[in-house]
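User: Teach me something about this protein's shape.
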Amino acid sequence: MNHRAESAGSGGYRPAVGAIETEQIAREFEGGIRAVDGGDLEVAPGEIYGFLGPNGAGKTTTVRMLTTLLRPTGGRASVAGHDVVAEPGAVRRKIGVALQEAALDPLMTGRELLRLQATLHAIPRDRGEQLSDTLLDRVGLTQAADRRVGTYSGGMRRRLDLAAALVHSPEVLFLDEPTTGLDPVSRQAIWEEVVRLNDEGTTVFLTTQYLEEADRLADRVGIISGGKIVAEGTPGALKAEVGRPHLELSLAGGDGEERCTEILARFGRPLPARDDKLLVELEHGASEVGPIVRALDDAGLAVESLDLVQPSLDDVFVAKTGEHLEGAGEPLEEADDAPAPADRVSG
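Assistant: First, the predicted structure itself:
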């Protein structure tokens, strides 16, 4: 659980109105495709808000509307007290944005890029140079400051993009899947910086596909599926709603799954299979494991592995959407952190 949500108490986190507000915000594209369909959000000043959903759910479209990069086709939204349609300039002055596709010139050095960013924000030259050096140190890029960005690894580019988003000390920081594809060390560095920024008072709106990321960082999470927000609350409160542990089971040899599923259904509510394991929700938890094993043994089904798992955000996602979040059961170790080609810098 994250560093603040545990201390929220039994009453949970109650956000104040302010940093981000939307009312029935929607975005429809050509052909009648509604990428976001009437979402209501309230994010309090100083909150980390995790926005969960699979690819195509509407996460990035929501962020692009809130950051004035895409005009809503319905509803209204305000960020830092300014309407995103009527006052886009005022919104941009109050926000920092690090999107999946970072606009980083591969021929510039990290130091040059941050100084340019400071100039674009009308920060005096001396102050901009000092600020650039401070931010490079903050994100661990001092030694690489005078290397061209095209030679940076994926994790380094992501950290540089974060530093660029912080040049003007934004009130609200938008991070769109900031750790996707990063190695564990780079991911941890991003997490630590997000926590530090938030401790200093920055509101953070974080989209992610990683349940662990949302669970560790977010005060509250919203789950979006098919363009609609289907659940919202603290990670602890959402898991408490699900409330029941589930059994994950695999059979030796992989045969007899249909018969096994029939037996498991006698003891609880079957859940969608994951990673070749059968899942069943158990109302009475560990007390039902013994009878399940005996019933499977009586049916001639040999159990290879058996785990009783407490409710997680993935269970919440399944309960609200009927499917697992992509990559929910995968470890966060795989990543492509090699330098990008000089003519292509990804976010």
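Now, about its shape. The domain at 244-310 is CATH 3.30.70.980 (Alpha-Beta Plaits). The two ends are 27 Å apart (CA to CA). If you'd like, I can walk through any region in more detail.
User: That's plenty for now, thanks!
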